[in-house]
């Protein structure tokens, strides 16, 4: 494997990670929407029924719902940080466009031709000065872009993982709330 292939593979891998991170936001948003809908149903049903006011469990449901709301806000914060850097957007350094590579290649040919002509005129001078080749320039562009992608993707992945932790906590609070709500309904039907 030559160096260009190495840098290209790393660049393409990080580009794939970027696309995966852009698509990873959908499932957490669906889960958050479901959790909010379930809590709204539980609270609206509990508040309409006079029977639920007789139990202290309703206060527990309210407190857990408030805690869950705070946890969801934290999850949304980290989702926003992962997706769009809280409104500041992530800056990805792209490799140059094909026209800039074409111009670089033509300029390099021109410089090397002029240098060869100078070398022929001054045969006694030893010119060991080497100019970067087109391949070296391409390697540099790919390496800079891939390194930037890696750093940005690492930040995004960390924020997404933190959002998922808060989301898991929110799911746990929702399960507890739902269990309490089901217990209240079952005990109401037995009375």
Brief descriptors of the model:
mainly alpha; 80% helix
Structural class: mainly alpha
End-to-end span in angstroms?
76 Å
Spell the H/E element sequence.
HHHHH
Query: What is the number of domains?
Result: 1
Query: Percent of residues in beta strands?
Result: under 5%
On the 0 to 100 scale, the average pLDDT is 81
**Coarse shape:** rod-shaped
The tally of helices reads 5
Give the C-alpha Rg. 30 Å
Structure notes:
80% of the residues lie in helices and 0% in strands. The protein has 191 residues and is mainly α. The protein has one domain. Helix 1 packs parallel to helix 5, helix 2 (26-48) runs antiparallel to helix 3 (57-84) and helix 3 (57-84) packs antiparallel against helix 5.
List the helices and strands and how they pair.
Elements: H1 3-23, H2 26-48, H3 57-84, H4 98-121, H5 134-190
Quick recap:
The chain has five helices and no strands.
């Amino acid at each position: 494997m030559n160096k260009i292939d190495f840098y290209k593979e790393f660049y393409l891998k990080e580009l794939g990670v970027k696309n995966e991170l852009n698509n990873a936001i959908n499932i957490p948003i669906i889960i958050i929407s479901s959790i909010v809908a379930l809590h709204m149903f539980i609270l609206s049903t509990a508040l309409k029924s006079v029977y639920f006011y007789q139990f202290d469990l309703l206060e527990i449901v309210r407190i857990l719902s408030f805690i869950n709301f705070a946890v969801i806000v934290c999850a949304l914060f980290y989702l926003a940080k992962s997706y769009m850097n809280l409104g500041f957007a992530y800056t990805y350094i792209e490799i140059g466009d094909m026209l800039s590579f074409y111009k670089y290649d033509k300029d390099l040919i021109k410089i090397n031709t002029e240098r060869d002509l100078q070398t022929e005129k001054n045969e006694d001078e030893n010119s060991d000065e080497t100019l970067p080749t087109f391949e070296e320039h391409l390697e540099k562009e790919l390496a800079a872009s891939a390194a930037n992608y890696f750093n940005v993707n690492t930040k995004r992945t960390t924020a997404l993982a933190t959002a998922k932790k808060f989301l898991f906590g929110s799911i746990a609070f929702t399960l507890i709330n739902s269990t309490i709500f089901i217990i209240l309904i079952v005990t109401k039907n037995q009375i």
